[in-house]
Amino acid sequence: MDPRDFGLANLPFGIVSDRTGRRRPAVAFEDRVIDLDALVDANVLDEESLLAAETLNAFLARGRAEWSAVRARLQHLLGAEADHTERAAVARASFSRDAVTMHLPVAVGDYVDFYSSIEHATNLGRILRPGGDPLLPNYRHIPIGYHGRSSTIVTSGTPVRRPHGQTMSPEGDAPSFGPSRMLDVELELGWLAGPGNVHGEPIAADDACDHVFGYVLLNDWSARDIQGWEYQPLGPFLSKSFATSISPWIVTLDALEPFRVAEPARDPQPLPYLRTREPWSYDIELEMALQTARMREHAHPPLTISRTNFRSMYWTLAQQLAHMTSNGSAVRPGDLFGTGTISGSAQGTQGSFIELTWRGRDPLALPGGESRTFLEDGDTVIMRGRAVRGDVRVGFGEVTGTVVG
Ligand code: MN
Questions:
Q1: Residues in the 5 Å CB sphere of ion ligand 1
Q2: How far is the CA of 189 from the centre of ligand 1 (A)?
């Protein structure tokens, strides 16, 4: 990973352990990891919620003012203005990135996945309902989502076991049970909730900034054959709940502030509770790469199969949060929200194999003569993200996972 992606402008938060196995909060800085528990213990950082913390949930409960104050203090400690004592404390709290193991940054409470790329929804509508209107009538009015399973959220690098499930035969005559033959991924971002709301009290879209700590990369592993048989009328169930991978470093909203951009044009205008004064789109470049077992054996590097950008998402974080809580539903610190697959309409900009191969019709050609429609055992998928504006770079690192049979 490029150390320039983790400069003072970024400082993403995560949970690490060293060889003693003890977990503690940290920020990534250049090619190092800075132990925040050690900085609090050395009295150069004043934030009790980070002391002896094995997850970031207590820190996420603290809210925007504390998050920003800690980040500003860290920028001072790691910058040119730090004094001798501060530099010594930072040196004692520094690890090489290779010397630590990354863990899930939070104990995820509830997990919701949205469906907020209109290009993705249009692509899937064309594939699954050819001849009809690709968008269902509600799409431009309501941020669509489903409740997923937090117990199977895993950090980058965790192998993903091919799920077994019930599928209908292509002829539609009889269902059977066995390993999924249409294993897929979804390239997404995920955002992590902060203090949350009181049950019964919705969060206004314009208050979203106070309730969201930051973003991670998210891979929503999906078994399309299981999904196609089970999803009507209540939506995805076992086709998604076997694994969801996230990147280990949370990139804060503060770090992403320079990359906020105008939202895409919306027609019709959303209902008043879904309108915001500020723009909530972000200019974040994303890419997805694939390396098969045979590519690894023959030393072929991962092949980039998709490049896209987050800025065209139809529904934003602020709208998702306002909609999610509009019925009084409660959000708690560490709840995770997937944005939905991030896709463009042009070939090579889609965030899933079902779109990239048009449900298997157009296989992807790979180095060494292999091809892919959906994932085979031994395949590794790597997702990366980065925002760049002039000299300012903010990287997400990566989320990877290898399919095992
Ligand atoms: Mn998804």
A1: 113, 186, 220
A2: 10
The tens digit of pLDDT for each residue in 348-370 reads 999 999 999 999 999 999 999 99
Domains, in order of start, for the chain: 3-103 (2.30.30.230), 111-404 (3.90.850.10)
Whats the size of the chain, residue-wise? 405
Separation CA 264–CA 279 (nearest Å): 10
How many angstroms separate the alpha carbon of residue 237 from the centre of ligand 1?
Answer: 12
Q: How far is CA 203 from the centre of its chain?
A: 22
| pLDDT tens-digit series, residues 140-198 | 999 999 999 999 999 999 999 999 999 999 899 999 999 999 999 999 999 999 999 99
